[in-house]
Amino acid sequence: MATRKFTISPKFLYAKFILFIAIVLSHSHLSAQVKAGKAPPVDTFKKANQLISKKKFRKAHNLLNAYHKNHPKDMNAVWQQAQTKFWLGNFKRSDTLYKTAVKLKPDNDYLRLNYISSLADMGKMAQATTMLSGMEFSGRDYPYMDMLHAKLYYYQGDYKQAAAYMRKALQSDNKTEEIYNLDDEIAYARSPRVSLSTAYLSDNQPITAIISTLKAEDYFNRFLDLYLVCDEYHFMQNTVSDAPWVRIGDKLFFPQAGLRINVGGGVFQFPVKNETGFSGNLSLNEKLSQHFDIDLGVDHVPYFDSKTSIDSNITATRFSAMLNWHLRNWAAQAAFINSTYPDNNNVYSAYGWVLAPIAQFRHGVLQIGYSSSYSNSNQNTYTAVNSLSEILATYTTGSSIAGIYNPYFTPNNQYINSVLAALSLNFSKKMSLNINADVGYGTINNPYLYLNKDNSGNYAVIKGYSNVSFYPGDATVALNYHIDKTWLLSAKYIYHNTYFFTSNYVSLGIEKSFQRAKKKQADPKSTFSRLIGEIENEIQSLYKCKDANELKASVGKIRSELVTLRNAQKSKADTYESKGSDAATMLQDRYDALNDMVNDLDAVNLDDNADGKTNKKQWLIDKLYELTSVNYNGYRE
After folding, report:
1. Going by C-beta distance under 8 Å and a sequence separation of 6 or more, which residues neighbour residue 277?
2. In this predicted model, what pLDDT tens digit does every residue of 265-279 receive, in sequence order?
3. SS3 assignment, position 439
4. Torsion over CA: 533, 539, 543, 544 (sign)
5. Cβ atoms within 10 A of the Cβ of 525, count?
6. Dihedrals φ, ψ of 579, to 5°?
7. Per-residue pLDDT tens over the stretch 524-563
C-alpha cells in the first residue's frame, strides 16, 4: 500500500468545497433574507464563499457565526459552519455542527452525503460507513455514493475494492473534480512503482561518496505491500571502496486498530575487509486519535556517518519512539532515539519541535516554528590520531594533540535550540517545491587531549572537556515534477552544519508507476451485466420487506438468480478451457466469487427475531458490495 500516514489531500478539500457550493446552490436558497422595502443586505453566503476560496476559513466562520445568531433555523448557515470548522481542523466542533444541521433538515440527502464524506476525511470510518449504509438501506441511490464507498475502502487500505467502486462512480454523468482526484490517488496507491536516484555527498571530515538507490514496490492487499531497496555506497577516500546493501520488506495495515507495520531485512557488504552484515527493521505507527499518532521503531543498520567508520566495520541498533501531532497546517513532534554500538556504548537524544502556519496563500503555506534537542553518550569515543610514542616524538610545550571520533560520533551534553521555517509551494498539479531551514544556538562539552604524567611518572594522553558554543544550521530544498500521472522527477539539496562537520548532499531521481489499465466495463446490454444489475436492485430493495416471510421469499429469489448466473459462468469456463483461452480463468474467478456469495447466503438463518431481521437486511445490503466487486473488479468478459 502507499506509504502514507492518514492525511487529507488539499485536492480533496478544495474539490469538496466546489461540490458543497454546487449542491447548495442547486438545492438551497443561500441569500440572506431581504427585508421588505429596504435595499438587499450583503449576501452573507457569497462573501463567505469568497473567503473560503482564498482559504480564509476563520474569517468565513466568524461571518457565518454572526449570521447564524440572527438566523438560528437556517440549516445552510450551520452546514457551512460545519465545513469551515472542518477546514480549520476542529473536527469535534465540525461533527457537532453537522449533527445540528441534520436535525434541522433530516430529509436533506445532499447534506448527509457531504457529512459522510467529511466523516471519512476525519478518520471516522465506522460512523461514515454506518451512515452510508443507512441511506442505502432506506432506498437512497445516488452516483456520489459509489465515490464515498471508494473513499472509505481507500482510507482503509483496500485499494482493490476502492478501484471497483471508483470505476462504478466514473460511469456517472455527474463526475466532479473530487472523483477524478480520488481516482488518481487510488490508481497510484495500487500500482507497482520503481524509482532510481543518484546522490553526491561531501563533508569536511572528509567524506566523499556517490550513493545510488533503486527502489521497487508492489501492492497486493492491505497485508501484503512488498518493497525492495538496493543501495550502492561508493566512497572516494584515500582508496575507493564500495558498500552494496539490499533489503526487502512488507507493509501491513490494520485499519480497525489504526495500526501500520513495516517489517524488513537485508544484507550488506562493509566497505573494507569484504565482510558481510545483516540488517533488519521493524516500525509501528498507531493512530491514537484524530490529531495524534505514535511511531515506534527498531532497526539494525550499517554506520557510515564518520570517516573512521568507513575504514572499519560498524553497525548500530537504533530504537526510536515519536509522538506526532497534526492539526491542518500545524504540526509537532516529540521523540527519543537511542543507538547501541558493538562496544555496548549508547548514544541517545531527545528532541521536540513545533511548526505553525503564519501565512497561507492559494498555492502554498509558510510555517515558522521552534525546536529543542539534547544529545549525550555513555562513553566518549574521541581519541588521539597518533600513538603515544608518535605524540612524544613531536610534542612541544603548548602544542595541541590532534584527535578524532573513532569510529563513531559521540556527543557529550549537546544542547541545540533552533528557529524553524518551512515553505510549501504547489505551483500546479505537476510541480511542487518544499524549502525547510533552521538556524540555532548550541552548546557542547567538547573533548580535548593533553599530556600528563601518571602516578608512575609516565606520560599518558588525558581527555578533558570544555564548554563550547556553536551555531548549527540546516537547509533542504526539494523539487518534484510530475511529467504525467506515471512519471515523477525529483531533485533535492541538503546542507547540514553541526559542530562536528559540515556536509552537502545533492540527489536526482526518477520514479515510474505502472498503473493498471482500467478494465473496460461489461457491455450494459450483455446478459451478465443485465442480471447483475437486476440482482443489485433486488438486494437494494430488501428494506421494503415487511415481515420474515416476505424477506425469505425475496432472498430465495435472489439466491436462485445468483445460482443461475454462477452456473452459467462455469459452463462458459468449461467451453473456453478446451480452447486454452485466458477467458476460462476470468470466468472461473467470476464463478468462485458468485459461489462464495451463495454459500454465505445458505449459511445464515433467516428465521430471526425482529432485531435479527433488521440485521439480516443489513447483512444482505453488505453482500451488495461484494456483488459490485464481481461486476466492476475485473470479473468480466
Report:
1. 267, 268, 269, 270, 302, 313, 315
2. 999 999 888 899 999
3. strand
4. positive
5. 7
6. -95, -5
7. 445 676 677 677 777 766 666 777 777 777 878 888 888 8
